[in-house]
Amino acid sequence: MRIRDRCESDSGLGAGRRIGWTAPRRGNRPRSRAEEPGRKPDQEPKMPIVTIQQGPRNVEQKRELVKKVTEAFVEALEVPAESVYVWIQEYQPENWGAAGKLTADR
To answer: Are 86 and 50 in contact (CB under 8 A)?
Structure first.
């Protein structure tokens, strides 16, 4: 029994009606952009995305952080600075913890 058939019978929609979802085909999809047809092995995607999770910092500290992280990726991966994206997610002390304690309670 296919997934779609099972969903139709479980939902009561009947075999004649489509529910709009089928399982993805795994066998024919490339595993990564580097494995796409026509792409040479040395042509890997060159757009690193960096996510930094931290407590609140002032804007000047964040500017310096983004600058240094970008420089590190440019040097290590040999990509243009314009291709490096840095996302900063800030969390208040009451929204995270370490060593079993809420950071706001330290």
So the answer is: yes
Rounded distance, CA 22 to CA 26, Å? 12
Please give the full DSSP string across 33-82, using - where no structure is assigned: GGGSTT--TT------EEEEEES---HHHHHHHHHHHHHHHHHHH---GG
Cα–Cα distance, 19 to 52 (Å, whole number): 39
Q: Is the pTM of this model over 0.70?
A: no
Q: Which is catalytic among the residues 45, 48, 80, 93?
A: 48
Q: Specify whether 48 is catalytic.
A: yes
What is the distance between the alpha carbons of residues 31 and 44, in angstroms, rounded to a whole number?
A: 13
pLDDT in tens, 16-42: 555 455 555 556 655 555 555 665 656
* Exposed e or buried b per residue across 28-51, where buried means at least 16 C-beta atoms within 10 angstroms of its C-beta: eeeeeeeeeeeeeeeeeeeebeee
